[in-house]
Automatic annotation (TrEMBL):
Pfam families xrefs: DegT_DnrJ_EryC1
Protein name stated in the entry: dTDP-4-amino-4,6-dideoxygalactose transaminase
UniProt key word Membrane: no
Keywords assigned: Pyridoxal phosphate
Keyword Plastid part of the UniProt annotation: no
């Protein structure tokens, strides 16, 4: 039985339950379930929080990535650079536009895209770069700007993170984020958003998510049906007001893990890239014999996880890219070692001490 979960959504819900119930009651009374005023209010709040001019709510984070790419004109015959070490949705969104994802290896100590390898991945067909702000810290986006290629940030794991004091979401041309329940800012179901300071790109994204329609029954472009629900906007607004405090609590917990792990041999703690203020969506360590260690932690009631066990280029979904084991050696090596420890704003010192004790015993 797992009694220290990887993420404790119940504890978070208890803090916003009354506010959400009151907001939902208003939505139920007005029956404005789609495009209610709460959606526009949240979009304005989140744009301001992320330091950009526009936020467009959509149905989920994968749609957000796809629509950001489509707004840039990405389509069949194009290529987009993605990290080999990421959740499959990053590459999946590229493929859904008809373009081809081009993986690039990661840096071992952070897991972030290795920007020194991006130049070799570029071609005349490259239309976008998709750095992923992995595990809650920003990729070095500024090192990608020299290529002159549009940048779409995958910011699903880094709501509130900053790089050189600039919030993620405002580092590139557009950013996509997910409000999947386990995210730092999570809904009570699926949801996502595209962030940008370009009015033209924001308008294009909004059209895509609303059947290509600026007004009812007018469809100048082919679109999709992907909007942020009013009920979810209520949840997200309530949580956004608490996000800074929750991220501070995550940072304190990460500092505590670092101190506890300092005397544990066989465990490599995460490294923060210089210039980053992370929000610790995940606390990912590296260990030998990871699968055995994970099994031991689960047996001890510790809800550890793996993010991610298979690099994009080795998944069956992208076998058609033609890559083989060994093509991206760092991502492949770390995929067998990475282990995500329980981390959420409400985690206690006692819980973390127990996690580290169980981890040390399993590693030894």
């Amino acid at each position: 039985m797992i009694d220290i979960p990887l993420v404790d959504l119940r504890a978070q819900h208890e803090q916003v339950a009354d506010e959400v119930a009151e907001g939902w009651a208003e939505v139920l009374e007005t029956t404005a379930f789609v495009d209610g005023r709460q959606v526009a209010e949240f979009e304005a709040e989140f744009a301001a929080y992320q330091g950009v001019e526009h936020c467009v709510g959509v149905g989920n984070g994968t749609d957000a990535l796809e629509f950001a790419l489509r707004a840039l004109g990405v389509g069949p015959g194009d290529e987009c650079v993605v990290p080999a070490n990421t959740f499959i949705a990053t590459a999946e969104a590229v493929a859904r536009t008809g373009a081809t994802p081009v993986p690039v290896d990661c840096v071992a100590d952070t897991g972030l895209i290795d920007t020194s390898l991006v130049a070799a991945a570029l071609s005349p067909r490259t239309r976008a770069l998709l750095p992923v702000h992995l595990y809650g810290q920003a990729a070095a986006v500024e090192e990608l700007k020299r290529f002159g290629v549009p940048i779409v940030e995958d910011a699903a794991q880094a709501q509130g993170a900053r790089r050189h004091d600039v919030p993620v979401g405002g580092l590139g041309d557009l950013a996509a984020t997910s409000f999947y329940p386990g995210k730092n800012l999570g809904a009570y179901g699926d949801g996502g958003a595209v962030l940008t300071s370009s009015e033209e790109l924001a308008t294009a994204v909004r059209l895509l998510g609303r059947h290509g329609s600026p007004r009812k029954y007018e469809h100048p472009v082919l679109g999709f049906n992907s909007r942020l629900d009013t009920l979810q906007a209520v949840v997200l607004s309530a949580k956004l007001r608490r996000l800074e405090g929750w991220n501070d609590a995550r940072r304190a917990a990460a500092d505590r893990y670092a101190a506890l792990l300092s005397g544990v041999d066989g465990v490599t703690p995460p490294v923060v890239l210089g210039g980053n203020l992370p929000v610790w969506h995940l606390y990912v360590v590296r260990v030998a014999e990871r699968d055995r260690v994970l099994k031991a932690l689960h047996a001890a009631g510790i809800g550890a996880g793996i993010h991610y066990p298979t690099p994009v280029h080795l998944t069956g979904a992208f076998a058609g890219l033609g890559h083989a084991p060994g093509d991206f050696p760092v991502a492949e090596a770390t995929a067998g070692e990475i282990l995500s420890l329980p981390l959420f704003p409400e985690i206690t010192a006692a819980q973390q001490e127990r996690v580290v004790e169980a981890l040390a015993e399993a590693v030894e």
